[in-house]
Amino acid sequence: MFTALWARVADGSLWQPIGQTLQGWSLGLGTAMLIALPLGILIGSVFLLFMSTRTIVEFLRPIPSVALIPLTALVFGAGLEGKWFLAAFAATWPILLQTLYGVRDVDPVAMETARSFGIRTPERLWRVVLPSALPYVVTGIRISSAVALILAVTVELVLGAPGLGQEINIARQSGAVASMYALIIVTGLIGWVLNIALSAVERRLLHWHASQRERNR
């Protein structure tokens, strides 16, 4: 396996599939963040909106993203667009829910104190709500990163979109077992590296939080 992996590294055939998989991952995760963060803050901030959308969110959230693969193939085809859509759909829910519940968990005493000092809503959002919800948001992004990578590789495996999943399938069909497992190892390493990178960002952003202070002792 490692011999096959080194051969792919040496001849340069590994880098393009990695780039294609990471492209689908980054587009999916980025789109999920653009949708879920403002939506989570809005829904979490307005109690009536929170209660009225709760049923819809709880209905859509459990839908397995892989169940949408046939619809994705029909609408978007087997290219980057389908991979982007499914990765974004799957990655939206952890960020949305974590943001929503993070906003709902803001200390009401802190909010009332800010109101009593005459701090306006936009500044309360920036100074009170976002710092309080940030640990939830960062956790949601880290979960969604893994989900987006899984869906990107799944679409490549099932639909044949360009990337590591497609290369794994080609190696399997051609009987190149060592190459197939070498590519699986690469996929796992990418997920591991992404998780380490996001954990480092989390420590940097939340250096003031109690959980990080406990970890650094």
Topology:
Elements: H1 2-11, H2 15-45, H3 47-60, H4 69-76, H5 80-104, H6 108-116, H7 121-159, H8 164-173, H9 177-205, H10 210-216
Notes on the structure:
With 217 residues, the chain is mostly helical. It has a single domain, classed as Orthogonal Bundle (MetI-like fold), CATH 1.10.3720.10. The protein contains ten helices and no strands. The protein is elongated, with a radius of gyration of 21 Å. The mean pLDDT is 87.
How would you briefly describe this protein structure?
With about 220 residues, this protein is mainly alpha-helical.
Order of helices and strands: HHHHHHHHHH
Strands, total number: 0
In DSSP terms (H or I, runs of 4 or more residues), the helix count works out at: 10
CATH class: Mainly Alpha
Helix content: over 70%
What is the CATH architecture assignment? Answer: Orthogonal Bundle
The CATH topology is given as MetI-like fold
Shape: elongated
Quickly give the structural class. mainly alpha
Computed CA radius of gyration, to the nearest angstrom: 21 Å
| CATH superfamily membership | MetI-like
Question: Main beta sheet: strand number and arrangement?
Answer: none
Task: Quickly count the domains.
Answer: 1
Low-confidence stretches: none
Could you tell me the strand content as a percent range?
A: under 5%
- Alpha-carbon distance between the two ends: 40 Å
Average of pLDDT: 87
